[in-house]
Amino acid sequence: MDFELIIPMLGVMTGIIVPVSLFTLLYFERKDKNKTILEISKNIDNPSKVEDLIGMLDDRKKEPINYRRTGVVTLFSGVGLFLFGVFFLGSVLKGVGALVAAIGSGQIIAGYLYPNTSEELTNAVEVFEKK
């Protein structure tokens, strides 16, 4: 086999091998976690502890998205890209950086327009009731 073909073939195979191996790893990790929780739940008599174990299976976050925090991170990522474009790569990266910064600014504004924690909602209702 010609050695000039090996590198492109490895490059193509890497695009297939990496995602497949990652999904396989995540599958087995999740499978073992579920089996462990199932075995523990068989030996527990208290229903509240069983509910806690079921809650461990739920991978979703319990708290809402904080748009202000993610907006600040996105805003400064955009500023960094913009500055990188100014000093090194040119107008294309300046445009990308400005777009990302605008998205971050929009997230920050959305975080202030739509309060997302229960404490913020309670405060908003109390302020509204005072008026």
Protein described:
The chain is an all-alpha fold. It has 2 domains: 3-57; 67-130. It is 84% helix and 0% strand. It has 5 helices and no strands. It has helices at 3-42, 47-57, 67-89, 91-113, 118-130. The longest helix is centred in the first third of the chain and has 40 residues, at 3-42.
Query: Which percent bin holds the helix content?
Result: over 70%
Strand portion = under 5%
Tally of strands: 0
CA-atom Rg in angstroms: 25 Å
Oligomer: single chain
Figure out the total of helices: 5
Number of separate structural domains: 2
Largest sheet: none
Structural class: mainly alpha
> Termini separation (Å)?
81 Å
What is the string of helix and strand elements? HHHHH
Q: What is the compact description of this entry?
A:
By secondary structure, the protein is mainly α. The protein is built from five helices and no strands. Helix 1 packs antiparallel against helix 2 and helix 3 (67-89) packs antiparallel against helix 4 (91-113).
Q: Strands, helices and their partners?
A:
Layout (H helix, E strand, L loop, with lengths): L2 H40 L4 H11 L9 H23 L1 H23 L4 H13 L1
Helix pairs in contact: 1-2, 3-4
Structure keywords:
mainly alpha, 5 helices, 0% strand
